[in-house]
Amino acid sequence: MKPLIAPSILSADFARLGEEVDAVLNAGADVVHFDVMDNHYVPNLTIGPMVCKALRDYGIEAPIDVHLMVKPVDRIIPDFAEAGASIITFHPEASDHVDRTLQLIHEQGCQAGLVLNPATPLHYLDHVMDKVDVILLMSVNPGFGGQSFIPSTLDKLRAVRKRIKASGRDIRLEVDGGVKVSNIGEIAEAGADMFVAGSAIFNADDYASVIRTMRDEIAA
Ligand code: DX5
Ligand code: ZN
């Protein structure tokens, strides 16, 4: 599958969010990564369905990848589907009924995925490989942008890539946290095919040049 670059808008200038999202898409990004934090499941508070809808109303047509760092999970899912989410991922520890939550996301017409924190074991995937469209491995502890990539994620990516191959399904393997030009090559080699990058893109002056260099590194 074509590698996808998904800038995390957590590091964008929120006062100019529509323009910022337009700018990264014009700079070559594929997907908008939308971090939802509730100051309960994670120690930070960000944005909700209203902001997702505002981006759609502004004219953003690219897929919006909603990363839910909230607990409980289910109640907010229909609101995000209604607001224009394309993909909705959640942390299995934050859901009482993981299978039901996956089903709910699909019923709402979105693609569904599980997010595994750095210390969350892969066995959460055991009985859902036929039900996930995306598996997102956190390469930092969720809550903040600008943290350093945790190297043990590379082995975890290799293990999940094997599971995806064995499943015979086209499941996206997404990685989130500390992804930069300097490490994206080895992350791709370990099996990721969807790359979230917040600070590495939004803290740069030239978004297009960072995204282009990331693609070159992935292909190298
Ligand atoms: C962290 C978020 C990430 C974060 C990535 O909880 O899920 O999406 O914004 O930011 P960087 O790329 O700066 O690590
Ligand atoms: Zn995220």
Distance between the termini: 16 Å
Please indicate the percent range of residues in DSSP E strands (runs of 2 or more).
15-25%
Uncertain stretches: none
What is the strand arrangement across the widest sheet? 1-8-7-6-5-4-3-2
The largest pleated sheet is described as: 8 strands, parallel
The CATH superfamily label reads: Aldolase class I
Under CATH at level 1, the class stands as Alpha Beta
Secondary structure layout:
Elements: E1 4-7, H1 17-26, E2 32-37, H2 49-58, E3 64-69, H3 77-82, E4 87-90, H4 98-107, E5 111-116, E6 134-138, H5 153-167, E7 172-176, H6 184-189, E8 194-197, H7 199-202, H8 207-219
Parallel strand pairs: 1-8, 2-3, 3-4, 4-5, 5-6, 6-7, 7-8
The structure holds D-xylitol-5-phosphate (DX5) and zinc ion.
Can you put this structure into words, describing what you see?
The radius of gyration is 16 Å and the shape is globular. The chain contains 8 helices and 8 strands. Helix content is 34%, strand content 18%. It is an alpha/beta fold and 220 residues long. It has one domain (4-219): Aldolase class I (TIM Barrel). Strands 1-8-7-6-5-4-3-2 form an 8-stranded parallel β-sheet. It binds D-xylitol-5-phosphate (DX5) and zinc ion.
